[in-house]
Protein backbone atom coordinates (compact mmCIF):
# COMPACT_ATOMS: atom_id res chain seq x y z
CA UNK A 1 0.00 0.00 0.00
CA UNK A 2 1.31 3.42 -0.98
CA UNK A 3 0.59 6.29 1.42
CA UNK A 4 0.77 9.96 0.45
CA UNK A 5 1.06 12.63 3.14
CA UNK A 6 0.63 16.37 2.55
CA UNK A 7 2.59 18.73 4.80
CA UNK A 8 2.70 22.51 5.10
CA UNK A 9 5.49 24.84 6.17
CA UNK A 10 4.24 27.09 8.97
CA UNK A 11 5.64 29.30 11.71
CA UNK A 12 6.80 27.41 14.79
CA UNK A 13 3.84 27.34 17.23
CA UNK A 14 6.19 28.29 20.09
CA UNK A 15 7.17 31.56 18.38
CA UNK A 16 5.12 34.74 18.72
CA UNK A 17 4.31 36.08 15.28
CA UNK A 18 4.00 39.82 14.69
CA UNK A 19 1.77 41.68 12.25
CA UNK A 20 3.42 43.78 9.55
CA UNK A 21 3.40 47.51 10.03
CA UNK A 22 1.15 47.95 6.97
CA UNK A 23 -1.31 45.32 8.35
CA UNK A 24 -1.31 43.37 5.10
CA UNK A 25 -0.12 40.08 6.64
CA UNK A 26 1.96 38.60 9.44
CA UNK A 27 5.73 39.15 9.38
CA UNK A 28 7.50 35.82 8.87
CA UNK A 29 10.97 37.24 8.29
CA UNK A 30 13.48 35.77 10.75
CA UNK A 31 10.77 33.49 12.16
CA UNK A 32 11.54 29.83 12.76
CA UNK A 33 9.48 27.62 10.45
CA UNK A 34 8.45 24.01 10.94
CA UNK A 35 6.03 21.30 9.78
CA UNK A 36 2.42 22.04 10.59
CA UNK A 37 1.79 20.03 13.81
CA UNK A 38 -1.33 18.31 12.48
CA UNK A 39 0.53 17.29 9.31
CA UNK A 40 3.34 15.95 11.46
CA UNK A 41 0.81 13.70 13.20
CA UNK A 42 -0.47 12.50 9.82
CA UNK A 43 3.09 11.72 8.74
CA UNK A 44 3.75 9.81 11.94
CA UNK A 45 0.66 7.69 11.27
CA UNK A 46 1.94 6.87 7.77
CA UNK A 47 5.42 5.95 9.02
CA UNK A 48 3.92 3.67 11.66
CA UNK A 49 1.86 1.89 9.01
CA UNK A 50 5.08 1.26 7.10
CA UNK A 51 6.88 0.02 10.21
CA UNK A 52 4.01 -2.41 10.81
CA UNK A 53 4.41 -3.78 7.30
CA UNK A 54 1.02 -2.41 6.23
CA UNK A 55 2.42 0.24 3.88
CA UNK A 56 5.13 -0.22 1.28
CA UNK A 57 6.00 3.43 0.59
CA UNK A 58 5.41 6.82 2.19
CA UNK A 59 5.48 9.87 -0.08
CA UNK A 60 5.43 13.35 1.42
CA UNK A 61 4.19 16.36 -0.57
CA UNK A 62 4.36 20.10 0.05
CA UNK A 63 3.10 23.07 -1.95
CA UNK A 64 4.71 26.47 -1.78
CA UNK A 65 8.01 28.32 -1.67
CA UNK A 66 11.43 26.74 -2.40
CA UNK A 67 12.12 27.00 1.35
CA UNK A 68 9.58 24.18 1.80
CA UNK A 69 12.40 21.81 0.78
CA UNK A 70 13.71 22.12 4.33
CA UNK A 71 10.32 21.04 5.65
CA UNK A 72 10.30 18.08 3.30
CA UNK A 73 13.80 17.05 4.40
CA UNK A 74 12.56 16.98 7.98
CA UNK A 75 9.64 14.81 6.87
CA UNK A 76 12.07 12.47 5.10
CA UNK A 77 14.09 12.26 8.31
CA UNK A 78 10.95 11.18 10.14
CA UNK A 79 10.68 8.15 7.86
CA UNK A 80 9.14 9.16 4.52
CA UNK A 81 10.74 7.49 1.49
CA UNK A 82 10.62 10.34 -1.02
CA UNK A 83 9.30 13.86 -1.35
CA UNK A 84 7.60 16.07 -3.92
CA UNK A 85 7.46 19.87 -3.85
CA UNK A 86 4.86 21.67 -5.95
CA UNK A 87 6.90 24.84 -6.10
CA UNK A 88 5.33 28.28 -6.46
CA UNK A 89 5.79 31.79 -5.11
CA UNK A 90 2.04 32.42 -5.26
CA UNK A 91 -0.03 32.71 -2.10
CA UNK A 92 -1.90 29.43 -1.89
CA UNK A 93 -5.38 29.04 -0.48
CA UNK A 94 -7.03 25.69 0.41
CA UNK A 95 -8.68 25.12 -2.98
CA UNK A 96 -5.43 25.79 -4.82
CA UNK A 97 -3.55 23.37 -2.56
CA UNK A 98 -6.25 20.72 -3.10
CA UNK A 99 -5.93 21.13 -6.88
CA UNK A 100 -2.15 20.75 -6.75
CA UNK A 101 -2.40 17.72 -4.51
CA UNK A 102 -4.91 16.15 -6.88
CA UNK A 103 -2.33 16.31 -9.66
CA UNK A 104 0.16 14.45 -7.45
CA UNK A 105 -2.43 11.87 -6.39
CA UNK A 106 -3.43 11.23 -10.01
CA UNK A 107 0.22 10.59 -10.86
CA UNK A 108 1.14 8.48 -7.82
CA UNK A 109 -2.14 6.57 -7.27
CA UNK A 110 -1.75 6.10 -3.49
CA UNK A 111 -4.21 3.92 -1.57
CA UNK A 112 -4.30 6.30 1.40
CA UNK A 113 -3.97 10.10 1.49
CA UNK A 114 -3.25 11.64 4.90
CA UNK A 115 -3.34 15.31 5.88
CA UNK A 116 -3.54 17.29 9.07
CA UNK A 117 -7.09 18.38 9.87
CA UNK A 118 -6.01 22.03 9.56
CA UNK A 119 -2.97 24.30 9.36
CA UNK A 120 -2.19 26.40 12.41
CA UNK A 121 -1.58 29.56 10.37
CA UNK A 122 -4.99 29.98 8.71
CA UNK A 123 -7.06 27.32 10.58
CA UNK A 124 -9.12 26.79 7.43
CA UNK A 125 -9.79 23.03 7.89
CA UNK A 126 -10.75 22.78 4.21
CA UNK A 127 -7.96 21.23 2.14
CA UNK A 128 -8.64 17.58 3.03
CA UNK A 129 -12.34 17.88 2.34
CA UNK A 130 -11.77 19.71 -0.94
CA UNK A 131 -9.21 17.14 -2.06
CA UNK A 132 -11.61 14.28 -1.34
CA UNK A 133 -14.31 16.05 -3.35
CA UNK A 134 -11.99 16.66 -6.31
CA UNK A 135 -10.87 13.02 -6.26
CA UNK A 136 -14.40 11.69 -5.58
CA UNK A 137 -13.04 9.53 -2.76
CA UNK A 138 -14.43 8.63 0.67
CA UNK A 139 -13.11 10.76 3.50
CA UNK A 140 -12.85 10.86 7.29
CA UNK A 141 -11.89 14.04 9.12
CA UNK A 142 -10.46 14.66 12.61
CA UNK A 143 -9.22 11.07 12.95
CA UNK A 144 -8.14 9.93 16.42
CA UNK A 145 -7.59 6.29 15.37
CA UNK A 146 -6.82 4.55 12.06
CA UNK A 147 -7.02 0.78 11.53
CA UNK A 148 -6.86 -1.29 8.36
CA UNK A 149 -9.38 -4.10 8.04
CA UNK A 150 -10.38 -6.76 5.52
CA UNK A 151 -8.44 -9.78 4.33
CA UNK A 152 -5.95 -7.72 2.35
CA UNK A 153 -6.26 -4.45 4.22
CA UNK A 154 -8.58 -3.04 1.58
CA UNK A 155 -10.82 -1.28 4.11
CA UNK A 156 -10.14 1.42 6.65
CA UNK A 157 -11.83 1.98 10.01
CA UNK A 158 -11.38 5.52 11.32
CA UNK A 159 -12.47 6.76 14.72
CA UNK A 160 -13.15 10.46 14.55
CA UNK A 161 -14.08 13.02 17.16
CA UNK A 162 -17.26 15.04 16.75
CA UNK A 163 -19.07 17.58 18.89
CA UNK A 164 -21.33 14.78 20.15
CA UNK A 165 -18.61 12.21 20.89
CA UNK A 166 -16.67 9.60 18.93
CA UNK A 167 -17.78 8.21 15.60
CA UNK A 168 -16.40 5.16 13.76
CA UNK A 169 -16.33 5.26 9.96
CA UNK A 170 -15.74 2.18 7.80
CA UNK A 171 -14.64 2.96 4.25
CA UNK A 172 -13.00 1.41 1.24
CA UNK A 173 -9.59 2.41 -0.05
CA UNK A 174 -8.40 4.63 -1.60
CA UNK A 175 -9.54 7.30 0.86
CA UNK A 176 -8.64 10.69 2.30
CA UNK A 177 -8.12 11.02 6.07
CA UNK A 178 -7.28 14.12 8.11
CA UNK A 179 -5.50 13.71 11.45
CA UNK A 180 -6.46 15.14 14.83
CA UNK A 181 -4.15 15.72 17.80
CA UNK A 182 -5.07 12.49 19.61
CA UNK A 183 -4.08 10.22 16.72
CA UNK A 184 -0.48 9.87 17.96
CA UNK A 185 2.58 11.70 19.26
CA UNK A 186 5.16 12.34 16.51
CA UNK A 187 8.71 11.13 17.01
CA UNK A 188 11.72 13.38 17.43
CA UNK A 189 13.97 13.78 14.42
CA UNK A 190 17.54 12.65 15.13
CA UNK A 191 20.67 14.09 13.54
CA UNK A 192 21.67 10.77 11.85
CA UNK A 193 18.23 10.58 10.22
CA UNK A 194 18.56 14.18 9.07
CA UNK A 195 21.84 13.30 7.39
CA UNK A 196 20.26 10.25 5.73
CA UNK A 197 17.34 12.39 4.54
CA UNK A 198 19.71 14.45 2.38
CA UNK A 199 20.23 11.39 0.16
CA UNK A 200 16.53 10.62 -0.29
CA UNK A 201 14.87 11.77 -3.54
CA UNK A 202 13.10 15.13 -3.58
CA UNK A 203 11.31 16.02 -6.81
CA UNK A 204 10.57 19.63 -7.74
CA UNK A 205 7.55 20.44 -9.92
CA UNK A 206 6.77 23.99 -11.03
CA UNK A 207 3.14 24.62 -10.12
CA UNK A 208 2.67 26.97 -13.06
CA UNK A 209 3.71 24.25 -15.53
CA UNK A 210 0.82 21.83 -14.92
CA UNK A 211 -2.07 23.97 -16.13
CA UNK A 212 -3.90 24.30 -12.80
CA UNK A 213 -5.65 27.51 -11.79
CA UNK A 214 -4.30 28.37 -8.34
CA UNK A 215 -5.42 31.99 -8.28
CA UNK A 216 -6.82 33.08 -4.89
CA UNK A 217 -10.59 33.18 -4.36
CA UNK A 218 -10.41 35.37 -1.26
CA UNK A 219 -8.58 38.62 -0.52
CA UNK A 220 -7.23 39.64 2.88
CA UNK A 221 -8.35 43.16 3.67
CA UNK A 222 -6.40 43.69 6.88
CA UNK A 223 -4.52 41.81 9.59
CA UNK A 224 -4.40 43.06 13.19
CA UNK A 225 -3.12 41.90 16.55
CA UNK A 226 -5.77 40.35 18.81
CA UNK A 227 -7.21 42.67 21.41
CA UNK A 228 -5.57 42.48 24.80
CA UNK A 229 -7.59 40.57 27.36
CA UNK A 230 -8.68 42.42 30.47
CA UNK A 231 -7.37 41.23 33.81
CA UNK A 232 -9.56 38.80 35.71
CA UNK A 233 -11.46 39.82 38.84
CA UNK A 234 -12.23 37.77 41.93
CA UNK A 235 -15.65 38.11 43.58
CA UNK A 236 -16.48 36.90 47.10
CA UNK A 237 -19.57 34.83 46.31
CA UNK A 238 -22.02 33.67 43.63
CA UNK A 239 -24.55 36.40 44.44
CA UNK A 240 -21.95 39.08 43.72
CA UNK A 241 -20.98 37.33 40.48
CA UNK A 242 -24.61 37.24 39.28
CA UNK A 243 -25.05 40.90 40.18
CA UNK A 244 -21.93 41.85 38.23
CA UNK A 245 -23.00 39.82 35.20
CA UNK A 246 -26.36 41.58 35.14
CA UNK A 247 -24.73 44.99 35.09
CA UNK A 248 -22.22 44.19 32.32
CA UNK A 249 -23.37 45.94 29.16
CA UNK A 250 -21.73 43.31 26.90
CA UNK A 251 -23.94 40.52 28.21
CA UNK A 252 -27.48 39.88 27.10
Automatic annotation (TrEMBL):
Entries under InterPro entries matching the protein: ET-Flavoprotein_bsu_CS, ETF_a/b_N, ETF_b, ETF_beta_N, Rossmann-like_a/b/a_fold
The keyword Transport appears for this protein: yes
UniProt family annotation: Belongs to the ETF beta-subunit/FixA family.
Residue ranges of every copy of the Electron transfer flavoprotein alpha/beta-subunit N-terminal domain listed in the record: 23-214
PANTHER family recorded: ELECTRON TRANSFER FLAVOPROTEIN BETA-SUBUNIT, ELECTRON TRANSFER FLAVOPROTEIN SUBUNIT BETA
Xref: PROSITE patterns: ETF_BETA
Organism superkingdom: Bacteria
SUPFAM superfamilies, alphabetized: Adenine nucleotide alpha hydrolases-like
Protein name: Electron transfer flavoprotein subunit beta
Keyword Nucleotide-binding among UniProt keywords: no
Taxonomy of the source species: Bacteria, Pseudomonadati, Pseudomonadota, Betaproteobacteria, Burkholderiales
Transmembrane regions: none
Pfam family, one: ETF
Keyword annotations from UniProtKB, A to Z: Electron transport, Transport
